[in-house]
Design a protein that fits this description.
heterodimer, A: mainly alpha, two-stranded antiparallel sheet, 2 strands, 74% helix, elongated, B: mainly alpha, two-stranded antiparallel ribbon, two-stranded parallel ribbon, 5 helices, 4 strands, globular, membrane (chain A), transmembrane (chain A)
Chain lengths: 327, 137
C-alpha cells in the first residue's frame, strides 16, 4: 500500500485540495459546513474541473476515432490482399503497410481509450479517500488526509444526503441488519442513471455519428461490445463503490453525454447521419452545407473525410508522389 | 580456426531492407566469444520455456490462426526473446509484449532487442532466421 500511496500521492493531494477548496468556497457562500450537499456539490465541481482539463484529450480521442473509421475499409482491403499468405515476408509486409496506414491517417488506437485511463487515477484517489476517512483507526481524523484538515475529514465522513453517508456502499447497506434501504435506493438510482447515460451516449454515437463504412466491420463490433459491457462494469462497480465515488461517476457520465451531444450536433463525423441533419438545419437557415467538399473529394479519390483529418498532409503528399513518378 | 567466418551474431540479422540478413560480420574476438557464445549449461535454464513456446506454436497457435497485430507474432517474439536473451530478460520482454498486444496499440513491426549472443553458423536457432527474412526495399 505504501508503494501505491507514493505513486498516487499527487492525485490524492490534488483531489483533496480541490475538494477542500470548493468546500471552503461553498461554506463561504452560505452552505452548511457539515451538510452532505456541500460535499456533493464539491464533488460535482471536481468533475467539472477534471473534465475541462481533459477536453484537449477528448478532442484528440475524437480525431483518432474518426481516423480509425476512415482507416477501417482500407484495413479490410489490406487483410483481403494478404489473406492466406503465411510466410514471414508477407506477414511483415502486411504489418508494415498497416502501420503506414495508421501513420498516414494520424490514427493512434491508444488515444481512443486514453480519456478513460486518464480519469482512473483521480477516480482511485477519490475511492481511497472515501474508504479511509470513514475509518477511525487510520489516524486521518487526527492528522487530516493530504490537503483535507482533520475537521474537514470528520465533517466529510459524517456528512450525509437523504441520510446516506458519503462512504456508504450498496453491498454493505444491503447486507446490513436491518437493511439500510436509503443507501440501497440512492445508490440504485445513481447506478441506473450511470447505465442510462452511458447507454444513451454510446447508442447516439453509433446510430448518428458513424459513417456508413464504419458501421460494418470490426470497429462497429467493438463499439457494440462497449454498448453492453460498460453498463455491466457500472453495475458491478456501482454496488462496491462508496456514494461519493458514485456521485463522481454519475456526474462525469452526464458530462460525457452532454459533450457527445454537442459534438454530434455541431461537428459530426463526415458521412454520418448527424452530418446530414446538420446540413438540413443549415439549409433551413440559408447557410451552405458542411462537409460537402469532402464528399466530392471522396467520390473522386475514394478517400472519405479527407478534408477533416489530413488537410495539411494528405493532398500534398499525393501531389509529390505523382510528380516524382512523372519525372 | 579455419571456420572463423561461420560465426553469426544476433545483430547480423538486423539489416536495412534490401540487404541480406544473417551474413557473418568481422571475426569475433575471444572476449566476444566468451560473453556471447552460450554453451548448454548456460542455455539450460531457458530450455523448459523454449520447449513450451515451441510446443505452443506447433499445437495451440494453429487452432486460432493469426490474430496478433504485431510482427513477429507474440509467440515468435517470445521464442526469439527467450532464445537470445535467456530466461529472465526473455520472459520480461515477452510479458511486456503480450501486455502491449491489445486493441489499443495498433500493432506494428516490433523486433526483439538485439542481444550479444553469437553462434557458430550452423547452429543458429531457426526462429531467428524465421523472424528476420530478407525484405525487399
Amino acid at each position: 500500500m505504501a508503494f501505491l500511496d507514493a505513486i498516487m500521492w499527487p492525485f490524492s493531494w490534488a483531489v483533496s485540495f480541490i475538494l477542500s477548496t470548493f468546500h471552503s468556497v461553498l461554506t463561504f457562500l452560505g452552505l452548511d459546513t457539515d451538510s452532505g450537499w456541500n460535499w456533493t456539490v464539491s464533488i460535482i465541481l471536481l468533475v467539472l474541473v477534471v473534465r475541462v482539463i481533459l477536453i484537449p484529450l477528448f478532442v484528440r480521442q475524437i480525431k483518432s476515432q474518426r481516423g480509425m473509421q476512415i482507416v477501417q475499409p482500407e484495413l479490410q482491403k489490406l487483410q483481403a490482399k494478404y489473406k492466406g499468405k503465411k510466410d514471414p515476408v508477407s506477414r511483415q509486409q502486411m504489418v508494415a503497410e498497416q502501420q503506414a496506414l495508421f501513420k498516414k491517417h494520424k490514427v493512434n488506437p491508444f488515444m481512443t481509450c486514453l480519456p478513460i485511463l486518464a480519469q482512473m487515477p483521480i477516480f482511485f484517489a477519490l475511492f481511497w479517500m472515501l474508504n479511509r476517512i470513514g475509518r477511525t483507526d487510520g489516524g486521518y481524523q487526527v492528522d487530516g488526509y493530504y490537503a483535507l484538515s482533520p475537521e474537514e475529514v470528520i465533517g466529510f465522513s459524517s456528512s450525509d444526503i437523504f441520510g446516506v453517508g458519503m462512504s456508504d456502499i450498496f453491498l454493505l447497506g444491503f447486507n446490513a441488519e436491518p437493511t439500510m434501504w436509503n443507501v440501497v435506493i440512492l445508490t440504485s438510482v445513481m447506478i441506473v442513471a450511470m447505465v442510462a447515460t452511458q447507454f444513451f451516449t454510446q447508442k447516439q454515437l453509433m446510430s448518428k455519428n458513424m459513417s456508413e463504412a464504419a458501421l460494418t466491420g470490426q470497429f462497429a463490433q467493438t463499439q457494440k461490445m462497449m454498448l453492453y459491457v460498460l453498463p455491466l462494469v457500472f453495475v458491478i462497480g456501482g454496488v462496491n463503490f462508496p456514494v461519493g465515488v458514485l456521485i463522481y461517476w454519475t456526474a462525469t457520465n452526464f458530462w460525457t453525454m452532454g459533450q457527445q451531444w454537442w459534438v454530434i450536433r455541431n461537428n459530426p463525423t463526415p458521412g454520418s447521419l448527424a452530418e446530414k441533419e446538420l446540413n438540413l438545419r443549415r439549409a433551413a437557415k440559408g447557410l451552405p452545407p458542411v462537409g460537402e467538399e469532402a464528399r466530392k473529394a471522396r467520390e473522386e479519390a475514394e478517400k472519405p473525410k479527407g478534408q477533416h483529418l489530413g488537410r495539411e498532409a494528405q493532398p500534398n503528399r499525393k501531389k509529390k508522389k505523382k510528380k516524382k513518378g512523372q519525372r | 580456426m579455419c571456420e572463423q567466418h561461420s560465426w553469426l551474431r544476433h545483430s547480423d540479422y538486423y539489416v536495412p531492407d534490401g540487404e541480406t540478413p544473417g551474413l557473418p560480420g568481422p571475426v569475433p574476438t575471444a572476449e566476444e566469444l566468451r560473453r556471447g557464445y552460450w554453451r548448454w549449461l548456460r542455455k539450460a535454464p531457458a530450455m523448459p520455456l523454449i520447449l513450451f513456446i515451441t510446443f505452443w506454436r506447433k499445437l495451440i497457435s494453429p487452432l486460432y490462426g493469426q490474430v496478433c497485430s504485431f510482427y513477429p507474432s507474440c509467440s515468435a517474439y517470445g521464442l526469439e526473446a527467450v532464445t537470445v536473451h535467456g530466461l529472465l530478460r526473455g520472459s520480461a520482454l515477452t510479458t511486456w509484449r503480450i501486455l502491449r498486444c491489445n486493441p489499443w496499440t495498433g500493432g506494428g513491426i516490433d523486433h526483439v532487442p538485439v542481444s550479444r549472443r553469437i553462434w557458430p553458423g550452423h547452429v543458429v536457432p531457426r526462429i531467428i532466421e524465421t523472424n528476420h527474412p530478407p525484405m525487399d526495399k
